[in-house]
From TrEMBL:
Protein name: PUM-HD domain-containing protein
Pfam families: PUF_NOP9
Keywords: Repeat
Entry keyword annotation includes Repeat: yes
One example of a Gene Ontology biological process annotation: endonucleolytic cleavage in 5'-ETS of tricistronic rRNA transcript (SSU-rRNA, 5.8S rRNA, LSU-rRNA)
One annotated GO molecular function: RNA binding
Repeat listed as a keyword: yes
Length: 646
């Protein structure tokens, strides 16, 4: 087959192309990381922050405090700094909060402020809610105070089990109680506020502050909803009333929220009822600011387990926003055809704010509503153009990712199966990834997916190495890229999903048929290394195939052990091999024992597999390994026993 030069098409999302918000997001990150140096530089130019103008002495004092905060890690010192600075700023809180630098300082000082000072601040904030809500910088301080008051109020309601689960998740992924500093706070907020001991009287005042704030916002909802500063405060309040502390964790399967009083859930219901009863409810979805507020309302209601209210809200959005726009599209169909315009996409998918709102509806909607209404009335018949659209393919991904019905999945796959090559050409490989994951999750369409996927890459009859590399690069075998390609993240994830199919024999055979040095290069790559996990953990890859892979990599284990990600593969292969193969791996590593200690990751392999011991005395190594295995079994039995007792 003749080779063709590969020119990434317009709209491609390859590494040479950047997303719509790429440069704006990068600029925001750089701006956050340079906040303190910029504050110092502007101070020297007699420019003392945006917002309310401060005098030079006040500004320099706040900059020095900001610098001290970034260096201080001791809890007692933080408390001392917070109380001392708040004492110095007494009577100037509103003025300071309305300044750019002052707002940043106060946001972080509030976290470690003592009971008496914090109570005084809550009273002062409550008397000036309107001022704080409508100011560009003071509104951020109000959001932080609302957040901290919520944490202090509900900390005793969290069970010991929840705390243990949260502690156990810290090493895997930083969540709501993260102790790491993030880009929003210089000092950690959630973990400290949840563990610090406060009097019952103080916790009650914090609870009253949250409720008073919520009632104030509801009474002024008509005014504040359209204000871009106050709108953020409303969103923060709704999320806090449901116990959500980190919005990013909501959409995932491991989302975690805190237990809140029943009264707070009633306040959230009232927020939902008032917004839903507005005559201009449909207009909220048209604007980016108000559409994001509706997204947060959906997230908040979803975690309260109030299925009835959630379905009512989703149904109202469907009826008054999504369905209305779909009908308008049908009415304009004839005019679009006359003008020769692009009439493939329904009108509701043209407005980006509405599309993002629809994505959240897909995530939180009940399964039956998703199938009968959202898919059947909005997506069906339009899956291909939506998947090929740069703005709408993420909605398609969410729809597929949350499909739990096989019949619905069959219909979706039927619309997309002939467009896999087009999706690869425009760079929408995420759609192929969620299709592969859905095939695994629902155990359907697996054979068709593999057939269509390989045809899209023109590698159905290709040699094993060419087929695997085409999948990992997501490039057809007859395409010559302009530069050396790298393993595509989605390509690796699709291959991992395929290895979990019911019949992955074609790919298992292809991996085992590759030269072992080429396979080792793939497993050294940070994206390719996880293929080893998928191969070993798959339910449908036989024991003999695992042992063949361990044997196939012999001669490459030293090279793997000397790389960061390859060293992890060595551990995986060691666990997957039989006793004889494990000894072969250690024997091979023992030949390069001196090099293993030069890198921390390979030194870990040396220590764990007792490579030094094997080099000195293989017989002693066999005894030591057996003893370690016995201790490991005893420990695992003890852990299981304690779990059963608890």
């Amino acid at each position: 087959m003749a080779e063709t030069k590969y020119n990434p098409p317009e709209g491609s999302t390859e590494s040479t192309e950047k997303g719509k918000q790429h440069y704006r997001n990068r600029a925001k990150k750089l701006k956050r990381s340079k906040f303190l140096p910029n504050a110092k530089r502007f101070g020297k130019r007699n420019c003392f922050g945006r917002g309310v103008e401060l005098d030079q002495a006040e500004y320099n004092y706040l900059v020095s405090i900001l610098e001290a905060m970034s260096k201080q890690k001791d809890t007692e010192e933080r408390q001392l700094i917070a109380n001392n600075v708040m004492g110095q700023l007494k009577g100037k809180e509103i003025r300071t909060a309305s300044n750019q630098v002052g707002s940043k300082v106060l946001e972080n000082l509030l976290i470690y402020t003592g009971e008496e000072t914090f109570t005084t601040l809550m009273d002062m904030f409550a008397e000036n809610f309107r001022v704080f809500c409508c100011d560009a910088f003071a509104s951020h301080v109000l959001q932080k105070m609302l957040h901290i008051a919520m944490l202090r109020a509900i900390a005793p309601l969290q069970t010991v089990q929840d705390e243990q689960e949260e502690d156990g998740s810290q090493s895997k992924k930083q969540k709501c109680g993260s102790s790491e500093w993030n880009e929003k706070s210089i000092w950690p907020c959630v973990e400290y506020s949840m563990k610090e001991q406060y009097s019952e009287e103080h916790r009650q005042k914090c609870r009253q502050f949250v409720e008073r704030m919520a009632k104030f916002l509801m009474n002024n909802l008509e005014e504040f909803v359209w204000d871009d500063k106050a709108n953020f405060v409303i969103r923060q309040c709704m999320l806090n009333l449901s116990g959500i502390t980190e919005k990013k964790t909501v959409d995932g399967s491991e989302s975690k929220h805190l237990t809140v009083p029943e009264q707070w859930q009633k306040l959230l219901q009232e927020f939902c009822t008032r917004l839903s009863s507005w005559p201009q409810f449909a207009d909220l979805a048209q604007s980016e600011v108000t559409a994001v507020m509706l997204q947060d309302l959906l997230r908040a209601v979803a975690v309260t387990a109030d299925a009835f209210q959630l379905e009512q809200l989703v149904a109202k959005l469907y009826k008054e926003v999504f369905r209305v726009l779909k009908k308008q599209k049908q009415e304009e169909q004839v005019e679009d055809d006359k003008q020769g315009g692009d009439s493939e996409l329904p009108r509701l998918f043209v407005n980006e704010s509405i599309v993002r709102l629809l994505e959240v509806c897909i995530v939180v909607a009940p399964a039956q509503f998703l199938k009968d209404k959202i898919f059947a009335r909005l997506f069906r018949g339009h899956m291909k153009p939506l998947a090929l659209s740069r703005a709408c393919n993420f909605a398609v991904q969410k729809l597929i990712d949350h499909t739990s019905d096989k019949d619905m999945m069959d219909l979706i796959f039927g619309e997309l199966e002939d467009s896999l090559e087009q999706l690869l050409r425009v760079g929408h490989s995420g759609v192929l990834l969620v299709l592969a994951k859905a095939c695994v999750r629902l155990s359907c369409q697996q054979g068709k997916f593999v057939k269509q996927f390989l045809e899209a890459l023109h590698c159905g009859e290709a040699a094993p190495e060419k087929m695997i590399m085409a999948v990992l690069y997501l490039l057809p075998v007859d395409v010559t890229p302009k530069s050396t390609p790298k393993i595509h993240l989605h390509g690796s994830l699709i291959l991992q999903a395929i290895l979990d199919f019911n019949k992955p024999i074609k790919f298992v055979t292809a991996l085992l048929g590759m030269p072992n040095d080429r396979l080792a290069e793939i497993l050294i790559d940070p994206r390719g290394s996880f293929i080893a996990n998928a191969f070993v953990q798959s339910r449908f890859v036989g024991e003999k195939s695992r042992e063949k892979l361990v044997r196939h990599l012999e001669g490459q284990y030293c090279q793997l052990a000397l790389s960061v990600h390859g060293s992890r593969v060595v551990e995986i292969m060691y666990e997957a091999g039989n006793p004889a193969q494990r000894e072969n791996i250690v024997r091979e590593l023992a030949e390069q024992c001196a090099q293993l200690n030069n890198k921390p990751w390979s030194a870990k392999i040396n220590k764990r597999l007792l490579v030094d011991t094997y080099k000195r005395d293989p017989a002693r190594w066999r005894v030591a390994i057996k003893n370690d295995a016995k201790v490991g079994k005893m420990f695992s039995k003890l852990v299981k026993k304690r779990k059963i007792e608890n």
